[in-house]
């Protein structure tokens, strides 16, 4: 008797719980883990639910703290109502902030998406209020500041009775400061027979064993002996020296790649890393492969570069040793205090090649503005959220990457002329204007997103290789130079939210363009004349614009697949000759889309929400087999009755319909089934089958996408498979029914002299937001 959607909800809840209980991968060779698990679980006091219990695990980097935490998680996870494992807190706090970590914690424990806390103090209040009655297993991995603990697990009263908290850190004093009494020190592995030789050479660290072993793999006995002699000479030195032996085996290009990753790119996407390595002058593909083979880095399942913190520390120490006393004489700068020192003391030199940092605006750089003047070899400059006492007077012309988010000056230095610049990004800056760019053969990426003071884009005619141009949310931008319409290499042009922009460019011929995004340009009243055939443009977004018609030359967009027209101010007239090329036309929440009266065929997929289709315009859509008229109060598909219209539409080629249930009574004859499939037999002639399927959402959603699939099998062989996607953009409960006439699709696909078995299977997938 339970309604279907409630039953589905229970299934989703059960599956979600089981997914959360999927065990983590602990280690490829979990040697010695069992004894550590016993120690930690004993400290946790699993048999008692009287209070929250916290255990700290500490030890040097690479010793196995995270491995132990994952193993304990796998053993006890099914004893808790909710679970959260926050890995890599030290790095994530730097990159994303504590508020983001609080949001992640709440999302994983509560199973809710898009939780926002605003700031850390409000996040603390929300965690205490929403989790104080939940029995939670919380694991905080790689904590290096007491502020992390105060923001994520500040007190035992934050969580319900029986909660267990595990914290891993290198700093035992941090645990004591937070009042954690129960602690476990992870010690070096004991020498076991199978690993006695290797473990002794690597000081009991499994990580070092992996690195050393990969260096020996496939080598001759003489190489083994020689290498072991070298390890014996550094046996009593710090593990840094042991790992550095693998670094010393690299060639100069591979060393540079290794140091860049250690200093800047750990945990970044591999594609982004390769691009910046190339711009630094390295052969990224070969070098990445060598580092992977030597176990110095790994590429994880999410295509991110991963470097163990012990190896990263070794790489950064190598750079520090380039000049232990003066950071300005090092090749790479990433530590904020070193960067402040170099800029404020004007200590820049031509040794510096890369600066990447995320500074804090609450601490301004008090400088003369000329510190970059001596950095003649600076190739990559990436600065986030920095505050400066005065504007920069000089920027080095050697730059290949200038990515300065929050740039506070109204303009760039007058004599800045970086002829080898490839990436130029000043998003969220105070830039008011920039001069017409000189000849920049190499510039491919230009980003001025969220530049609120920028009013116009000058000529880009001398930037022939530009591939991406981002102008999103430049709310005072009102003019874009005509030359932007004739950039042969431009692949992406995005100007979302430019609310003062009335015209993009008068004309365009962009043969390489693949995506044009003008969403939210509320004053945009005209579309450019398309002067040449553009085969590569697949997606055009014109949502929330003031367009009322498209030019005749719009038909030159011969590769167009998706045209988005949601929430437009006025009715848009689309030339009928455009429609055969368009797979999907969405026009939700708007007054309508008109087609010209010229007869033309439309491609088989048309989402016709808010579109006048039949009576006035139906004759232009002779090829449509899937027509969605649901969730719409202004559809004109019917005249006197649905019976007559369905007959007329079928004569025009329609065979599948969807509309709200309340529009019409439904009479079911012959076959009725509550199952997702229907079975029947026939011979000679395929029977007249009018299939009717009901779908009930039950709940009210802002956005809903229903993917309905229909398969027809004759004698076990699939003879027909059709798929229709229906999108609803109104917050309302909606019950739908689907009609399908199979007669016109099935003739001639069977043996007329034998009995034939038919199975009709309907499947649906609902995605809601």
UniProtKB/TrEMBL annotation:
Keyword presence, Repeat: yes
Molecular-function GO term, any one: ADP binding
Keywords: Leucine-rich repeat, Plant defense, Repeat
GO biological process: defense response
Gene3D superfamilies documented for this protein: Helical domain of apoptotic protease-activating factors, P-loop containing nucleotide triphosphate hydrolases, Ribonuclease Inhibitor
InterPro entries listed in its UniProt record: AAA+_ATPase, Apaf_helical, Disease_R_plants, LRR_dom_sf, NB-ARC, P-loop_NTPase, RPS4B/Roq1-like_LRR, WH_DNA-bd_sf
Start and end residues of each AAA+ ATPase domain: 51-189
One Pfam family it belongs to: LRR_13
Keyword Translocase: no
Record protein name field: NB-ARC domain protein
């Amino acid at each position: 008797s339970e309604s279907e959607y409630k039953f589905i909800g229970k299934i989703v809840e059960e599956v979600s719980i089981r997914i959360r209980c999927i065990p983590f991968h602990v280690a490829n060779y979990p040697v010695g883990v069992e004894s550590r698990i016993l120690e930690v679980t004993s400290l946790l006091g699993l048999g008692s639910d009287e209070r929250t219990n916290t255990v700290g695990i500490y030890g040097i980097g690479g010793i196995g703290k995270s491995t132990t935490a994952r193993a304990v998680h796998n053993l006890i996870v099914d004893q808790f109502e909710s679970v959260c494992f926050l890995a890599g807190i030290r790095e994530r706090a730097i990159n994303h902030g504590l508020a983001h970590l609080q949001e992640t914690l709440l999302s994983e424990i509560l199973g809710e998406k898009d939780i926002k806390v605003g700031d850390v103090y409000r996040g603390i209040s929300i965690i205490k209020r929403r989790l104080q009655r939940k029995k939670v297993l919380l694991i905080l991995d790689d904590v290096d500041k007491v502020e992390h603990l105060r923001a994520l697990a500040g007190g035992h009263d934050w969580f319900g009775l029986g909660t267990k908290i595990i914290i891993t850190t290198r700093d035992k004093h941090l645990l004591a400061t937070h009042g954690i009494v129960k602690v476990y020190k992870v010690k070096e592995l004991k020498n076991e027979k199978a690993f006695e030789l290797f473990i002794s050479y690597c000081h009991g660290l499994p990580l070092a064993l992996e690195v050393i072993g990969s260096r020996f793999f496939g080598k001759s006995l003489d190489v083994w002996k020689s290498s072991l002699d070298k390890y014996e000479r550094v046996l009593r030195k710090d593990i840094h020296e042991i790992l550095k032996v693998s670094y010393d085996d690299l060639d100069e290009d591979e060393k540079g790649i290794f140091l860049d990753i250690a200093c800047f790119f750990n945990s970044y996407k591999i594609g982004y890393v390769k691009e910046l390595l190339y711009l630094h002058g390295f052969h990224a593909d070969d070098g990445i492969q060598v580092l992977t083979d030597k176990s110095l880095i790994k590429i994880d399942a999410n295509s991110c570069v991963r470097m163990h913190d012990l190896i990263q520390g070794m790489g950064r120490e190598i750079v520090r040793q380039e000049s232990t006393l003066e950071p300005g004489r090092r090749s790479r700068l990433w530590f904020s205090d070193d960067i402040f020192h170099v800029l404020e003391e004007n200590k820049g030199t031509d040794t510096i090649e890369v600066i990447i940092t995320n500074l804090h605006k609450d601490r301004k750089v008090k400088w003369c503005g000329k510190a970059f003047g001596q950095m003649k070899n600076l190739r990559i400059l990436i600065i986030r959220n920095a505050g400066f006492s005065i504007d920069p007077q000089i920027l080095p012309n050697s730059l290949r990457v200038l990515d300065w988010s929050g740039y506070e000056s109204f303009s760039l230095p007058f004599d800045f002329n970086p002829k080898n610049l490839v990436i130029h990004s000043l998003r969220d800056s105070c830039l008011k204007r920039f001069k017409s760019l000189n000849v920049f053969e190499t510039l491919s990426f230009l980003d001025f997103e969220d530049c609120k003071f920028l009013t116009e884009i000058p000529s880009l005619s001398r930037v022939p290789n530009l591939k991406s141009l981002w102008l999103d949310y430049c709310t005072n931008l009102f003019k874009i130079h005509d030359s932007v319409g004739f950039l042969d290499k431009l692949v992406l042009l995005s100007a979302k939210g430019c609310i003062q922009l009335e015209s993009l460019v008068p004309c365009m011929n962009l043969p390489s363009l693949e995506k044009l995004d003008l969403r939210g340009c509320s004053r945009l009243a005209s579309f450019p004349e398309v002067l040449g055939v553009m085969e590569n443009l697949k997606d055009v977004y014109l949502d929330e614009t003031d367009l009322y018609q498209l030019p005749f030359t719009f038909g030159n967009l011969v590769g167009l697949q998706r045209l988005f027209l949601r929430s437009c101010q006025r009715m848009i007239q689309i030339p009928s000759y455009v429609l055969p090329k368009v797979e999907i036309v969405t026009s939700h929440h708007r007054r309508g889309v008109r087609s010209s009266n010229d007869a033309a065929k439309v491609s088989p997929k048309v989402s016709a929400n808010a579109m006048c289709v039949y009576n006035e315009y139906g004759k232009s859509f002779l090829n449509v087999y899937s027509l969605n008229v649901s969730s719409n109060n202004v559809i004109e598909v019917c005249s006197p009755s649905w019976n007559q219209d369905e007959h007329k539409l079928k004569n025009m080629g329609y065979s599948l319909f969807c509309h709200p249930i309340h529009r019409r009574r439904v009479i079911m004859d012959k076959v009725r089934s509550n199952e997702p499939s229907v079975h029947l037999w026939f011979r000679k002639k395929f029977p007249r089958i009018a299939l009717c399927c009901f779908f009930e959402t039950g709940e009210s959603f802002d956005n809903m996408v229903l993917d309905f699939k229909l398969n027809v099998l004759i004698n076990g062989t699939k003879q027909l498979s059709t798929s229709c996607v229906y999108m609803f953009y109104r917050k309302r409960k909606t019950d739908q029914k689907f009609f399908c006439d199979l007669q016109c699709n099935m003739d001639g696909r069977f043996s007329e002299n034998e009995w034939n078995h038919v199975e009709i299977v309907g499947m649906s997938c609902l995605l809601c937001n």
